[in-house]
Structures are given as structure tokens and as C-alpha cells.
Fold:
Amino acid sequence: MIAVIKTGGKQYIVKPGDKLKVEKLDKKAGEEISFSDVLLVENDKKVEIGTPLVKAEVKAKILSHGKGDKIIVFKYKPKKRESRKIGHRQPYTEIEIISIK
Structure:
């Protein structure tokens, strides 16, 4: 069973047992969360495509929170002696898909 869920402005193809990193969610590690924004569900031989959503639910367990790799942002304006260097680490939440209903 495969589903396409939408969270944090992005879409993910998931199946039970998958572990993935999504945009940070406001839940604690160990809690369960359900995604109701399901765009597509594929059972054994039947595919349901939402217009825009399917009446389905994907349950997941939050494993941990963290920060991604550092990205360097460097801005430079020639002939002005102006430069700016900053770093950014995007927060994420690691989840494990439990079931698709």
C-alpha cells in the first residue's frame, strides 16, 4: 500500500515502515500524528486519486527532532565593499509511517 501525503508544503510518497524527515512539527518525540492531507492511495490493484484529497488517513510516529546540514549564504555586491556571509540549518522532524487507512 502506497500513499502520497502533503506536509510542510511538500509531498512525500510513503508506505508503512518508511522513515523520513519532514519540516518541523509541533509534537514531542514518541507521540503519534495523523496526516489527513492524502493526495493518492494505491491498494493492491486499485488507485484512488484525490480531487484534491482522498478520504484516507496516514498515521505516523515521531522519532526525533533535529537540524539539517549547514547551508552557507553569501551575498556580495561588487564595487561597493559590501558582503554578507550567514549560515542556516533547517529544523526537521524524523517520522516513521505506521499505517495507511
